[in-house]
Design goal:
- The complex is a heterodimer of chains A (344) and B (243).
- Chain A has 344 residues and is α+β, with helices and mostly antiparallel strands.
- The longest helix of chain A is centred in the last third of the chain and has 13 residues.
- The two termini of chain A are 25 Å apart.
- Chain B is of the alpha/beta class and 243 residues long.
- Chain B has a single domain, classed as Rossmann fold (3-Layer(aba) Sandwich).
- Helix content of chain B is 44%, strand content 16%.
- Chain B contains nine helices and eight strands.
- A seven-stranded parallel β-sheet of chain B has the order 3-2-1-4-5-6-7, sandwiched between helices.
- The longest helix of chain B is centred in the middle third of the chain and has 29 residues.
- Classes of the chains: A alpha+beta (344), B alpha/beta (243).
- Strand 17 of chain A pairs antiparallel with strand 8 of chain B, so a sheet runs across the interface.
Chain lengths: 344, 243
């Protein structure tokens, strides 16, 4: 099965084209579809503490969002660059684009000189099998230059650009994601406090998301259309998960990035602390382990995110939930509504 | 925009395949390169293609099993005075088609060991002062055949298993001297050597050596002591350092 077998009809009006705040609402007032084995129900996100049980554990991504869209320049002119992944201080994987809404590839060859946010750089090579992405060697501090000249990566369905703060979650602590780990966005300090009072624990992982704008045909060699991302699962979180499980609580991932991080820290002997780069690609053939639930957004048909949801809950459950979400007018994408999937 | 100290690397078997891919990545990263291989023309073509990166590229044609050639390499590296990275990539597959061990010509069995175990160790001995000067890293190319026991791969696989243990021992022995030693299994690749292992067969389903580039990008930016003594699979779905 491929990601493409989960196709859903999605009228354009269903995309969230503004933040909930701009829709006259609040971060934690977005709608929350709750999918249990017994069926789907409709809620507000702020009800999450009452929907969970004392002893449950939420695992969250502490990665925060970078102002990863920067101006680029080469001898053929000006363009836009989405910064994806830091391999080292001076080595980055990037996605040069003609513009915000016009993807590459651009005519960049190995050895070419360019600038990213005014930092001189040298193009090393296309990413193998995904020619829209490439490695660049920087002769300066790109992180600092991003702070000065970068803005958040945004997509064509949004009505306007938003400042970086709108792309941060309450859990974000360690800068490194090209795209907001958006499942965490509806969590407000108030929701977090109510969760604590309700006896729901929170434990962190880190996974710095790369650019997510992979398009059909990107993986030309037929391999999984994913590239490695930095991740870390600390021993304290492994211990919290073990304790939760032992006491009958549920382990619930906040975001698909958390599912991938936990799966990447799982080997033949189970979950253990781990740190590195992962390109684990979860899909119904490669189901997720160690999980009892997932908080996530609503994802486009054919995306790797949707394949991951099916890997967590099974294709039938996701199909049923998405049917309910479409019928009830839920909003898709990073500023849209939320989805709590509980397996037990 | 050149850093004060240009990092240097020596890559063996650099004329084509995996060695050429590693060399290209290192040139892109600004390394001054010492490249060696037996085939002079292919080596020059590979080196010429890397000149777009503007780094210094030195070539030396020869066989790493030849001690005189290793001396030439040492003298070449001594001009830089330091060696940040030694990539022992040159390997000998053995007879093609691959013979079962019970019929393996013993002279060729020994030759496989000379190329895959003795020569890279000799290079380490020869280049040690320059590696020590740079607090350098040794990357030894291994194979899944080192652990597989695949029929026909006996000489190559056994030599790589020996090389794995040489590498692990070196990692321990050189720890106090600030030198890191890493073993990398690149996985099946569409290379001349892999074709020789499967003469006449279609190997177009194997990825090109370029597929390993993200791994080199990752490995070469890890703290050197964090990866020393470890064995990585370049095409694995995850690469880890101690948590």
């Amino acid at each position: 099965m491929s990601a493409n077998s989960l196709e859903f009809h999605l009228p354009p009006a269903r995309a969230a084209i503004q933040t909930p705040e701009d829709r006259g609402s609040h971060r934690d007032a977005v709608r929350l579809l709750v999918s249990r084995p017994s069926g789907d129900s409709h809620h507000r996100f702020s009800e999450l503490p009452e929907l969970l049980r004392a002893g449950d554990l939420l695992v969250v991504n502490e990665s925060s969002t970078l102002p990863a869209s920067v101006p680029g320049r080469a001898d053929f002119g000006a363009f836009r660059v989405s910064i994806s992944t830091a391999y080292g201080p001076d080595l980055w994987l990037v996605e040069p684009r003609w513009d915000f809404d016009k993807p590459g590839p651009l005519p960049l060859a190995p050895g070419d000189r360019l600038t990213l946010a005014d930092v001189p750089a040298r193009y090393i090579s296309d990413y193998p099998g995904i020619p829209r992405l490439g490695f660049v060697h920087l002769a300066g501090d790109l992180r600092k230059a991003m702070q000065d000249l970068g803005s958040p990566i945004r997509y064509g369905y949004l009505s306007q650009g938003y400042p970086l703060d709108e792309y941060q979650t309450v859990f974000g602590r360690i800068p490194g994601s090209a795209e907001m780990p958006s499942a965490g966005r509806p969590f407000t300090p108030r929701v977090v406090r109510h969760l604590e009072l309700a006896g729901v624990a929170i434990a962190p992982i880190v996974l710095h998301t790369g650019v997510s704008s992979l398009e059909p045909g990107d993986a030309q060699d037929g391999s999984a259309p994913v590239f490695p991302e930095p991740f870390g699962v600390p021993a304290s979180t492994v211990e919290a998960i073990r304790r939760t499980r032992a006491q009958g609580g549920r382990v619930i991932a906040v975001g698909t990035s958390v599912v991938r991080a936990l799966e990447s820290a799982t080997d033949g002997c189970g979950l253990r602390a781990a740190r590195g780069f992962t390109r684990v690609y979860l899909n119904p053939k490669r189901p997720a382990r160690n999980l009892d639930g997932l908080v996530t957004g609503f994802h486009e048909g054919g995306s790797t995110h949707l394949a991951l949801l099916a890997a967590v809950a099974g294709e039938e459950r996701i199909r049923r939930a998405y049917q309910a979400a479409i019928e009830s007018g839920y909003l898709w994408h990073e500023f849209g509504d939320s989805h709590l999937i509980l397996l037990r | 925009m050149r850093p004060l100290t240009v990092p240097t690397a020596l890559v063996t078997g650099a004329s084509r395949g995996l060695g050429a891919t590693i060399a290209r990545f290192l040139a892109g990263e600004g390394f001054e390169l010492f490249l060696t291989a037996r085939g002079g023309r292919a080596l020059e073509e590979t080196a010429d293609a890397l000149r777009v990166f503007g780094t210094e590229i030195h070539t030396s044609v020869g066989d790493v099993t030849d001690s005189r050639h290793r001396t030439v390499l040492r003298d070449l590296v001594s001009t830089a005075g330091r060696l940040d990275l030694l990539v022992n990539n040159a390997s000998e597959l053995g007879p093609s088609p691959l013979p079962p061990l019970v019929r393996h010509p013993l002279a060729e069995f020994e030759q496989v060991y000379r190329t895959n175990v003795v020569a890279p160790l000799a290079l380490v001995q020869e280049l040690l002062p320059f590696l020590e000067q740079a607090g350098g890293q040794i990357v030894n190319i291994s194979s899944d055949a080192a652990v597989g026991g695949y029929p026909g791969w006996g000489s190559y696989g056994a030599s790589k298993a020996a090389f794995d243990l040489v590498s692990l021992t070196l990692a321990h022995e050189l720890q106090d001297r600030g030198i890191s030693v890493v073993v990398v299994d690149p996985g099946d690749l569409r290379t001349t050597m892999h074709q020789a292992a499967f003469p006449g067969e279609d190997i177009s389903d194997r990825p090109l050596p370029e597929v390993t580039m993200p791994f080199w990008a990752w490995l070469l930016h890890q703290p050197r002591d964090a990866v020393s003594g470890r064995r990585f699979r370049a095409q694995s779905e995850r690469w880890e350092v101690p948590a």
